[in-house]
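tokens incoming
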């Protein structure tokens, strides 16, 4: 079962992407693997470079705060007009309280009462757009949507699945407008029966970390808490079968054709999946934008990173683009969204090593 949404009188007023100031070539990992293995990985996934927070210390919240501050400054957006904040990540600063509350404080959003986190996963950007639009329809005027993931404490991985992921944070402002703008259209489908295909089961209440550590050992518990289990075959099948199916349903429901769009942004899972999905939805190859070679799989932010990267690489900072975004991932969830973007409101990539000092010292704070 899928849900369709049409939001009128709402626009994206600005978008910015921030990445950690640690640029890596995948060849930097050669020392961890047998000769030629990383080269094969790059050829199979399409990933040759990425930005990594490890060693920098920058968290997802830090990246999103930097991106949001840049939006406020460059586009002259008044912080006091923000009345909603949504933060979507699977790598929050804290288990509790919600990281969004601290971000509200850090950004000085004194008039923003609607503040919450979500961990929806790789569909975070288009799904978050639905959340933002729904809150605007319910009474908010302007929502700050923050999406991203970063792993500043996860060391170099000897598991090739770990090489897939790059770090990034995206900020966008979604607002109610009296302008004549095309509607934002969104479709969401969740296939909850497939939840075990991509899961990190340890560390919360169902399978508490201390209990798992007692039975399987501490290293096992910590490893699988930090490195989700993935059934590669099930995830691949889901991606190339269900994502195109939902996209076709989206197009049919809204009376659209894939050729109507200027840009098609597909979740940057890996090159094989991107190519397969693009072919199955019959997206013209010159309209499919791609950033995986330079950023890796940036998880929930990837469809937005694609847009910001396309604007910078091609110097597209004027005019309007009709954009289709398609994302799929953990849950299992698929989200398709279309919108028209004023490209002058899309900012160049930001690199940062910013780290927030929350005043908490694990050695002494709670003594």
């Amino acid at each position: 079962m899928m849900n369709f949404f049409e939001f009128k009188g709402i626009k994206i007023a600005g978008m910015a992407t921030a990445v950690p100031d640690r640029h890596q070539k995948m060849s930097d990992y050669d020392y961890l693997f047998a000769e030629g293995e990383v080269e094969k990985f790059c050829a199979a996934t399409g990933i040759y470079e990425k930005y990594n927070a490890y060693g920098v210390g920058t968290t997802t919240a830090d990246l999103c705060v930097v991106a949001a501050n840049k939006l406020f400054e460059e586009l002259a957006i008044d912080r006091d007009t923000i009345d909603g904040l949504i933060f979507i990540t699977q790598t929050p600063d804290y288990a509790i309280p919600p990281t969004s509350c601290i971000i509200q404080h850090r950004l000085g959003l004194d008039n923003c009462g609607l503040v919450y986190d979500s961990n929806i996963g790789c569909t975070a950007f288009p799904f978050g757009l639905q959340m933002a639009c729904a809150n605007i329809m319910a009474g908010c005027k302007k929502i700050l949507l923050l999406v991203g993931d970063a792993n500043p404490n996860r060391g170099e991985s000897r598991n090739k699945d770990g090489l897939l992921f790059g770090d990034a944070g995206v900020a966008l402002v979604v607002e109610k407008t009296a302008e004549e703008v095309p509607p934002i259209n969104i479709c969401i489908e969740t296939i909850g029966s497939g939840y075990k295909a991509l899961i990190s089961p340890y560390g919360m209440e169902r399978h508490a970390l201390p209990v798992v550590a007692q039975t399987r050992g501490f290293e096992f518990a910590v490893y699988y808490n930090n490195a989700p289990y993935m059934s590669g075959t099930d995830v691949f099948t889901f991606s190339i079968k269900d994502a195109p199916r939902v996209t076709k349903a989206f197009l049919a429901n809204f009376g659209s054709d894939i050729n109507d769009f200027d840009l098609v942004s597909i979740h940057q899972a890996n090159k094989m999946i991107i190519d397969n999905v693009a072919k199955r939805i019959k997206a013209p190859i010159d309209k499919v934008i791609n950033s995986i070679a330079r950023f890796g799989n940036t998880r929930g932010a990837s469809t937005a990173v694609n847009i910001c990267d396309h604007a910078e690489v091609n110097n597209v900072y004027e005019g309007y683009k009709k954009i289709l975004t398609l994302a799929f991932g953990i849950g299992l969830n698929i989200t398709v969204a279309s919108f028209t973007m004023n490209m002058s409101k899309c900012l160049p990539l930001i690199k940062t090593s910013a780290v927030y000092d929350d005043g908490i010292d694990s050695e002494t704070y709670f003594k």
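note: Residues 232-253 form the longest helix (22 residues).
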